[in-house]
Design goal:
three-stranded antiparallel sheet, alpha+beta, binds zinc ion
Length: 130
């Protein structure tokens, strides 16, 4: 601390003393940081995290994406894509058409079962017949 600050008190300008450059954790001159959910004091450089500005599943400011509130649009009967982040989801109504092959009755997509799935299904079926 400088002599004058000791005698007269600090000359605060925002969070910083103009005379001795001491910093206090008060009256920061925050400015938003471009592209981040953060604000930064132009005088002392202290940063503070801001809550994200969520618009559906994405933050308008920093671009963060959360797995919530997607804005789904349908691309066909069974598939949807989020208009905001591009995440995809599908909900097919599978029906077995052959051993190890399912077909969706809505969009006609083919799903090949893995050997494990085939085994499981064979078991289910043989149980069903008993
Ligand atoms: Zn001072
Ligand atoms: Zn500051
Ligand atoms: Zn954000
Ligand atoms: Zn999304
Ligand atoms: Zn389908």
């Amino acid at each position: 601390m400088s002599f004058w600050c000791r005698v007269l008190g600090h000359r605060w300008e925002g969070c910083i003393c103009r005379r001795c450059s001491q910093i206090r954790d008060k009256k920061h001159n925050y400015e938003p940081v471009e592209g981040k959910c953060e604000q930064r004091c132009t005088l002392c450089g202290k940063t503070e995290v801001l809550p994200c500005d969520w618009h559906g599943c994405a933050c308008r400011r920093c671009g963060a994406v959360r797995d919530q509130k997607h804005d789904w649009i349908s691309t066909n009967e069974c598939e949807q894509v989020c208009r905001i982040c591009g995440k995809e989801r599908e909900h097919h109504r599978w029906q077995p058409v052959d051993r190890g092959v399912d077909k969706c009755k809505y969009c006609g997509k083919i799903h090949k079962l893995t050997p494990d799935e085939i085994m499981k299904r064979d078991e289910e079926w043989s149980n069903g017949f008993m």
